[in-house]
What we know:
Layout: E1 3-13, E2 19-21, E3 24-26, E4 29-38, E5 43-48, H1 58-71, H2 77-82, H3 90-108, H4 112-116, E6 123-125, E7 128-130, H5 135-147, E8 152-156, H6 162-176, E9 181-185, H7 192-202, E10 209-211, H8 220-227, E11 231-234, H9 243-250, E12 254-257, H10 259-262, H11 265-275, E13 280-283, H12 290-302, E14 330-332
Parallel strand pairs: 7-8, 8-9, 9-10, 10-11, 11-12, 12-13
Antiparallel strand pairs: 1-4, 2-3, 4-5, 6-14
Amino acid sequence: MxxxxxxxxxxxxxxxxxxxxxxxxxxxxxxxxxxxxxxxxISGRGATAxxxxxxxxxxxxxxxxxxxxxxxxxxxxGEALASLPETLTPAARFAVHTxxxxxxxxxxxxxxxxxxxxxxSMTVRTNALVSAExxxxxxxxxxxxxxxxxxxxxxxVAASEAGTDATRIIAASEACGTHAQLRLDANRGWTLEEAVxxxxxxxxxxxxxxxxxxxxxxxxxSFSDETGVSAAIDVPSDWANDLASHIEASKCRFVVxxxxxxxxxxxxxxxxxxxxxxxTTVVSSSIDGPIALAAAVHVAAAVPVxxxxxxxxxxxxxxxxxxxxxxxxxxxxxxxAGVGSF
Length: 342
């Protein structure tokens, strides 16, 4: 199966609602869909967009993917996968790798999750995402998530002052009760002193972990020591070529990885396996369109340590099909070959 030609099309990612974080609101953005046609009449698709918060420009990303694709004319798909250059930026490599492995999975007639790991579950538990600003709205959003069947809820914090955040977290915890675990995501928006103060007011028993609790990764272990709450690291794109050693240095027991940030589902899955059963890998979406989100859900299904993943973002993006929306707190993958038909 050899590569014959490619197409690269614009992908408009339009949000149905704003998502507020400590580093600002996530809004509409533009991405790319890569289609690779093969000599066997099979096409593989991948998609990507500049990761929110990065300085990468869409035009540069498109030029990088196009240059790679032109160099692959008549290349065997397996050989193209084996020779993927490390010089590709993570967001570009994610699109390219997804398109290649999608073609292989389609040729094998297997869903991508099963192609990545034989026996992978086709049910992916997800955490609900809550970024409401007022404690009342936080409480209601969490009550709604619990009623919809979510057993894990992620609350965005550190965009408000510390006292308000403490009240928001307590409201979320009371709404979760014994029905759902509560995760916080501070996006590195707290100082260590602020984080310790807020968690001290809230109480450690309310929380599963805090993602990116403070501005300095070197203080994550101090945060955990002082609060008794586990820290999680959202792996940045500049760690992509040396994931395992960076993650081990962070001393976090929870690791959040976005396929576009780490450079592909293969890197993510390989790192999750290498980290072993004592480290929980949470796969997260960059709030993407259908193809990139589907790839994230499939790799979440293939991760060996079971947990709730951050891929319940389908309802936040216009045009994402219902098949990628969580029902009862989980996404059920179809048996369609590859990433699926979207």
